[in-house]
Structure formats: C-alpha cells, structure tokens
Amino acid sequence: MKYVTTVDDQEYIIEIVDDQHVVVDGVAYEVDFESVSGQPVHSLLVNDRSYEAYVYPSDEGWQVLLRGTLYQLHVEDERERRLRASLGAGLAEYGEFHLKSPMPGMIVAVSAEEGQKVSKGDVLVILESMKMQNELKSPRAGTISRVRVRPGDNVEQRETLLSIE
Amino acid sequence: MFNKVLIANRGEIAVRIIRACRELGMQTVAVYSEADRQALHVRYADEAYLLGPAPSRESYLRADKIIAIAKESGAGAIHPGYGFLAERADFSQACEDEGLAFIGPKPSSIAAMGDKAVARATVAASGVPVVPGTEGEGSLSDEDLLNLAPKIGFPLLVKATAGGGGKGMREVNNLDEMPSLLQSARREAEASFGDGNVYLEKLVEGARHIEIQILADNDGQVLHLGERECSMQRRHQKLLEESPSPFVGEDEDLRQRMGEVAVRAAQAVDYVNAGTIEFLLDKDKNFYFLEMNTRLQVEHPVTETVTGVDIVKDQIRIARGRQMRHTQEDIQLSGWAIECRINAEDPYNNFLPSTGRISHMLIPTGPGVRVDTGVYPGFEVSPYYDSLISKLIVRGETRGEAILRMRRALEEYKIVGVRTNIPFHQHLMDSPRFMGGQYDTRFVEERFSMDSAEEVREGYAEIAAILATLVAHQQTERAAHIIQRGERDTSNWKWVGRWERIHR
Fold it and tell me: What pTM does this model have?
C-alpha cells in the first residue's frame, strides 16, 4: 500500500511493501516495528538504527513525539488523496465548530455571548483545573451560536461548552 | 518523644516524608481523600485514614479531622509537607494545643513571615536588605500608594500582602495606569485571599530568583545549606531548579554573605526547623530579601544532592528536640544538581493541564539519577490537585555533566496516559542560553519557544513520517479485519442448511 505522509510542508511517498520493508521516496529501508506492550510508545528499527516515539491519533491526523520534538503529520493513502483532489480544497471553514472541554474542571468565566462575533484567538472560556486557570481560545472566526455553560458549572472532559458557526 | 508521624499531605511529597520516617524507624500514618484511595502514599504508609471527598477543602484542608485522626491513631507528630496546611499558623498552633509536635516552625514564626508586609518590616529591622518599597504595615490607601509610587520609581509591582503564586500582582510602568491596576490587584487579592491589602515594591529588572535553604534547631543554632537557582519560571510557577546557581558560581564571598543574611532573617523570627529565604538578585549581584517560605520546599532535593544532608530526616530530628548533627563548616557544596518538575501539562498546547489514567511508565535510573514521584502505572491523575506528578533530579560532577545526564534521563522517561512537560525540559536542555546559565525570571515567557530547536532536529522528520504511516497502516488493516469478522464464519451452504432446519 502506498501512502502520502505530510510533515509540516514536506511530503513523503511511503510504500509499505511488507512487515519488514518500506520504500520512502524511492529509497528502500529495512524496518522492524513494535508497539511496546500495546501502548502508544513504539519502537522502530530502521536499517538497524533504534528509535522510540509516542504516536497519537489527533484531530488533524497523527502526532509523533520523537526525541523531544512533536511532529504533526497527515497520512493519506493514494485513494483518499485522489478523492480529496477531485473534491477540491476549501472544505475546512464550513459547518459548526463545537468547543469541547479538554479536561474535567470548573468554568470560571464565559467571555462570549450568543450571537457575538469572535475572531481567531479570542478567549472564549476560562476553565479551572488542577488549580490553574486555563484560557480556551477560538480556533477560527465566526459567530457564537450557542453557549451551553455558565460560570460555576462543573464540566466533564470532551463536554461541549459552546458552538461557533 | 514521638515514634509515629502523621503526614498531612499527598502525592510525591507524602511519599518522600514516609521514606524518611521509614529510614528513621518511625511508624507512618497517611490521610487521603476519596480520589486518592489508590495513591502511593496510602500504599506505603503503615496506617491510612479517609478524610473526605476529593476537593481539598473537604479533605486535605480539614485541619480538625487531621488532628482528630492523629490523636486516634496515636501519632505524636504531624508533618504538613508543602501547600495545604503547611503555612497556616492556626494549624501549627492547634497541633501545639493538642500536644502534637508540628514538624515545622512555631506558629509565631509562620504568622510573622506569612504577612509579606510584616515579614519585610521584621527582617529590615534586623538589617536585612529588602527590595525598596512600602514595607510599612501594609494598610495604605490608594491615595497614599499613589503618592509613594514616584519615590520608589517605575517600573514597580503592586503585590497582595496575603499573596502568593502571582495572584493580586500587577506590574505598573507609569503613574497614569496605576489607579486602575491598583483596583484590579485589590479585587483579585480580595477574591483569592479574602484580603484586599496591597503594597508596592520596586521591580528589579533582569532579576534572578535565588533562595537559601536554612535549618534551625531548638538551641538557636541556624545553618545555611547553600543556594538554589529558581529563576526558570512560567507565570510565577517554578519549572526547574539547580544548585549551586550558575549566577553565583565561583563567588564564594557572595554565597557566604547571602547565607549569613538568611540566617539573620530566620533569627529575626526565632525560626526553628527547615525554611527557605528567597532573594532577588539584580545584574550587579545586589540581593534583596523577597520572602521566607516557612516549610519544606518542592525543590529541596537539589540541596540534598549537593550537600549530602537529608533535610526531611533533619526536620524530624529537630522536631524531636535533637541538636543539629552538622556545623556550618561541615556544609560544603559538592558537584552540581538539577531538578526538572514533571507536570501533567501539554507544552504544545499552552501548558494546558492533562488528566487521565497513567497506563504505562518507565522511570529513568542509572548513575546520578533520582526520581521523587507519587504516581505509577494504573494511577488516575485527577483534576483536583496540582499537576506536579514527578520530580527528576540529577547530579553531575560539573554543571555540564548534570545537563548531559538530565538530557539522557529525560529521553529515558516515558509516561503514557497523560501529556507531560518532558519535551519542554528537553528543549530547555538544548537551549544555548540555558547551557550558558544566562536566564532570568522572564526567560520562559519572553525568550523561549517550543519551536526554537526545530531546525536542528529536522533529520528526524522522515523517521516520524515512517512511524505515523506504519501506525496508520496497522490501524487500517485491523479495521479491515473487524469488518470481515462480522461476516458469516461458516460456508454459505452450511448456513442455508441450518436455516432450513430451523424453519421446518
């Protein structure tokens, strides 16, 4: 199977030949790949060089934490890529965005009202957890369509706090 | 004389204190909240008692319950650790009233150092230099403060007298913006501490935060155990400490002068047990008293590492009325120690706290490495308490060796289940300014970025790409398996035969 993997703006064409062989941009590598006791920590031997990294799924694709650096990656197989190319770009900015609580905690302040216009980076909610006050910011511009929490509310992880459209 | 100690705390510090008690042959009593039934301090202690629900005010802050448990269990002493009840004069007093030894200073010393304005006035009277400011009684009106401000000079800081952790603190650059900043500082102080009192202090630019550890026994002997460099902070939270300080370095004269002043400050309040005097140093090595922490500090291990003194054991010995085992001449700093605070915080997402179950953990070991932690695989990091989950301390013959060893240990340390600030520390170890010891209290906020070292590590992007692709590929294959398994696992002919038999 062939994949197109993007790190920052760099694209790699990676073909997984079998369990022991991958081809990266035309260069063949011998690999040995193990998940350490079923955890997101993975051990990889590439041509006998040993690497260890955390690999997490993320909203945008994958995150790899390797030697103290976090890489954001996007992995597509060729079919997905063709499909996306035929649909064209510019899908991302549509639809409602739901701001979800990244962790359990208590709402200290909600600095946006329904109907209010917000820009990217505006502080929407202040959430207290582990004795720290954390600012949750808007990831994009839009209008607040619904506010679901009030100061003093206790919220669970992944609970929707407000929506932007 | 007591032989059983109640530890009124949780997390890594409760474990640290239990270890000291064990080594001294003392019995230990743990207290815990409903969220901490499985915590390490409960598992390690000889006895454990439930305090109440998870929130601190219903558990670890319940002084009355803790004292009742101490009496019920026959503990003769209480060690408060840091945070929670550690700097509450009324708690120290209540212990004394109930005939329990409080492993810490007298109530009067805590009270004197607890109000920052009183503390400044007290130590200033004994000849200790303080940062220029309104060191009076601290009950000045806005009008008085506005009149005094130009005499101190700008920039200056408005600080809450009952303050701590940066709450109720404002930086003022000129007289025009001062009235509104005074208002907001008072409001925040009122909300945080129930006391809106503020005072002014000159802002020391390029300041270093350096503190001196002291130990004082009941016979009035006070020792200083060298300095700790604590300038590596973010939002007034310390992230990394080292001893000695690269800024003090070879300047033995400065070290001794600061030590002597620290001893004088402690004597000014009849201090007993372990304590820390915090100083601000300006770029010309002038130092000023900032405040005294009347408790064991998070970062005590760096001092233990370079002096060889077990501070927690000495705290217990002092509380048992023993004399100090060391003299000032015995205290020599040897080698270099660095401590990284490992917090459950995501450095790639604005240091947002991270909660969850720790599913896997690999602790660094080997020469010169010490880990103080209260968590283990299977433990749930809850949102109720602070995010410090571990302290990683290394020793080197030189600062260079300590940095290289810390790099090695950070790379070995694997924690799965919550995000941690380990990558932050790894970046720090690679930062030329840190390596050169060139940092002040604003370094992290103003001159540090998680992206800064990116170019150097470019070579690993390809490896990261291979890893992500392999994991994605594995996941697609597994998903394909699951779909196939949903299909009938026998041949269609057999299936039809069975179906017909049922419906005959």
Answer: 0.83
